[in-house]
Structures are given as structure tokens and as C-alpha cells.
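Q: Start with the shorter request: fold the first protein.
A: Done. Sequence, then structure:
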Amino acid sequence: MQEHLLAHPRDAQVLLRAGEMLQGMGRYDEAAAHLQRALTCGGCPLGTQAGDSPPAAGPNDLAVLHYEILQRMGDCCIVRTDLAAAHRYYAAAAALAPQRAGPRVGLGTLAFREGDLAEAERHFSAATRLDSSCGEAHAGLAVVRQEQGDYRAAFHAYLRCLELDADNMVALLGLFQTSCQMGSFAQIISYLETYLGRHPDDAAVLFCLAALYARERRYGEARAAVRKVLSLEPDKCEAATLLAELDQAQDPLGPARERNP
């Protein structure tokens, strides 16, 4: 990629791909710098003076390029907590490609962070209508429902997200929380076990699973899970506390029947 940048320093497509790579590496400041240059070289109005009117759609390929850069810039600005800039870029992307769900998800995320649940719900709902297979949109709507106290609706929205994206951590942990709030654990245990089959060293999910096993009185499995958490994160106080509680627990059904309390 560096060679391409040296050979084509003003090529908006090359700058976009470089920005995407840096974003994937977590180097958001560098990513934003490349994306900003891509906006300028690509002729997008927001590349030269952020805050002006959204870019008008030109030829299809140029409109797609502008959309991708604007969407990526919004994503970078959210991570960098420059929320005002993120709003400008997402709004411009939404104006340029009103049929795409991505900008709506971004605007919904911003509204949620600002505490405007009604606006967040409006954007996430719009995103699910535009693209029913957008897992992030369903996860966002679930977070709003959970915050509103509608745990059953949140639970089903998280499930829908996981059907589309089994590795979505927001949905996994949200499903865990809503399961605890509703007192229903069987379905989330299955999702967490499936996830850990692919990511066996994810300590956060392991700890959630250990807590659920403990609630279901599956003490042996809970101990095994929490011990693995401590092997991965020896200083995790919550895991040490849970293990102490498990070691003191008396299972009247015996270890052979832990899976069928």
C-alpha cells in the first residue's frame, strides 16, 4: 500500500483503501488524515470545508467513492469522540446515498450517545427498513429498547442481530444483560457457547457464561469457565469472587446432574 501511495499520492481510491487499512489496525488519527485527503483529492465539498452543504451526486462511480469516504470518516470521528464532525459526515453520506443503512446507523449511534432515545430509535428503525440484514442496525435498536426498559423487544432484536452476525459482541453482551433482567437464560447460554467455540479465549464472554452457569446451578461448568477466565486475566477480581462463591456452593443434585437442575 505504501508503494501505491508513493506512486499515486493524489488518487482518492488509493487514499481511501489506505485509510480503511489504518482504521482496521486501530490507527484512527492516521486513517482520518488519509480519508480527509481522499475527500480533497476526490473533489468532495466536505473535503475542503467541512460543514458546507452535502456533496451533490455526480457520476455513479464518483458518488459511490464519496459515500464510502464520508461513511469511513464518520466512523473514525466517532472513535476519536469528535461527535460534531461525525454528524456532518454521516449526514452528508445519508444525503448522498439515502438508500444505504450505514449512515443511519451512525446517526443513531450519535443520538444514543447524546441521550436522545427517540432520535436514535428513528434512525435505527430506518436502517432496519433500508437493510433488514444489517446486524448493526438491529443491535442499535436493541440497545435503545433495553434503555427504554422494553427487555423482551430488546432480547428479540439482539437475537436477530446474532442471527445475522454471530460474533457481534454488543449483541452477545446485550443478550446476556436482558436475559438476566428477564430471568431467562437457556437461549443466551447456547449463543455464548457457540461463540466460544470460535473464540475460546474471550475472557469477557467466558465470565458471562460462568455467571449464567452459576445461576442455572451448573456449578462444575461454571467453575471450569471462571478458572479459565482467571488463567487469562489473573487480576480479574469479579472472577475470583465468583470462584470463591462457587467453591462454597452446595449442589444438592450432585455433579452428575448439574446439566439438568
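Q: Next, the second protein, separately.
A: Sequence, then structure:
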Amino acid sequence: MSSTAKWVVAVVAGVAVLGAGVVVVPAVAWHLAPVPARPNPNPEAPAQPSPQPTVSEPPKPAESPKQAEPPRPIEATPSSGGDWVTIRGRVVWPESMPVPGHKIDVTTDKQHCLSRGDLVYEDVVVSPKTRGVKNVVVWLRPDTDNRRDPFPKDRVHPALRKVTPRTHVVDQPCCQFEPRVVAAREGDAIEFKNSAPVNHNVNYNSDTEPFNNNMSPNTSKKTQPLQAQSSPVTFKCDIHPWMQGRARVFDHPYFAVTDADGNFEIKNAPKGKWRIVYWHENGYHKGREGANGFPVEATAVVVEVPPVGLDLPK
């Protein structure tokens, strides 16, 4: 066998071993001439393979089997990255003003209504520890001077464009509406319950479905699917006149109600320039000026709005 033939046999043998997955043999540059094999002094002994040629550059390693990619981090949820943000803030009662809290002069169903202690008016609810204001409705609107301009539907997060209706439950366990303030989206419903042992009535006044429904103990009344309206929906109990409540119904999902410490959070909001509105049942924050809202630029993953000292109309 010629030296050239021996070299070809050696290369083919190396490729076969690589194909079997036993040994990976570095590939050589195909343009190099083979080095002649040394003569075999013992013809009966098997021929030794020719030495590999020496090249000036390091041999190019054979392609190793691809390693499994490390697990990718979970992509950010819409509310924590991309074009969507979370807006957080807090509404507080000004330090210069005393914390409200006036007793109610209960004249009807006193035994039941006072079974938990004195009742106080809940038109303004302020935490004595944090001065946070409860039941403030906060929402986003376009950055325009016309407060009736609708929120652009194409700027709503895709997962929120289709409304998933929910039912908001308002109970009357002890001569107060719980909750007193509801924020809902068009298509939702409100179910009024009476878990008290005394009679109530719900005088509900919306643009599309006003009713005045007497409610004996352990009964309920559910509204039709709500329709958005620019003014608040009022409801009250005529039997216990201090019992009043409000509902705001929106045609978009970017709203919230402050909790007992005045905190609110709006998730999956689109990035961009918007206005943020603060509404309390006694009026807009800063009155007529506040009806148009205050500029907010949503650029970061989480936008922390500075605390707002609630300034209600006098």
C-alpha cells in the first residue's frame, strides 16, 4: 500500500471512530500534503498509522455535541417590564387637619346597630396611625384637558382588553355598607346583601338601572351588568339614613381604591404620559383643578407616585 493510501485509510478510520461516538479526533486542514509513513521493519506486524502533520496554527477542534442551554429566566410579567408598568401611591390626611370621626345619633334599630359599639360617620375614613385615607378612587386618563376623553382602547394591555366580569358584594351586617365605595369595570355587577337581623332597603341610583329595593334579613339583590358612566353611582338605605355609598364604573381597567392605609396600586398600565385622578365621595382632590387629573409619566417598571395630601373642596 502506498503512503498516500495509508494516510487516507487512517483519516477514514478516524472519521468512523468519531461517528461511533467513542473518540473525537481533531480534524486536519485538508489542503496539507500527507507526511510519508515510516517503513515497517516487521512486515508481519500491523502497520503503524502515520503521524499527524504539524501545522502552524492550532488544530480546529471538532464540533462538540451541543450542551443543553441553561434555563432562561422567566420573562417579566406585563406589570413588571416591557411596555407595561405598575403605578403605586398613597393618599394621606394632611397633618394640619384633625382626624375626622363623629358619632352617629342612632334612632332606628338601636339594639342591633349599636351591638358592636358606637357608630361613626364613614364619609371620611382616616387611619389614626398612618393618616392614610381609605376609599379614595384613583384612575388614569389621557393626558388631555378634556376629562371626558376616553381611555384609548389600543393602549390597554392585551390580556385586559376582554372583560372578565366579576361581582362586587356589598353587605349590610351592622347598619353600615361594607364596602362603602366600589370601583368596577363595565360589565361587572354589584350584589347587595343583607346579613343583618333587621330590615334594610337599597336605594340605588345609576344612569341605566335605578331601583329602590326593600331587603329583609338574609336576602340579596344583584344589579344588571354595569355600564360605564362619568358620574358616581349613589346608593343608600332610607331606613338608616347615615348608610350611604358610592360606585364608580369605568370603561377601562386602570383604576383602584385606596386601602385602610391609603395605599393604591394600578397594574399593567401602558408606558407613556398620562394623568392620574384622585376622587373622594366628597369631591376631587383639589376640586375643579383635580377633575382633569395630575400629570404622571410612566416610564419605569414601577412608578412610585409621591404621597398625596388629600385636599377636598371646602
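Q: Describe the second briefly.
A: The chain is about 10% helix and 30% strand. Residues 1-67 form one domain.
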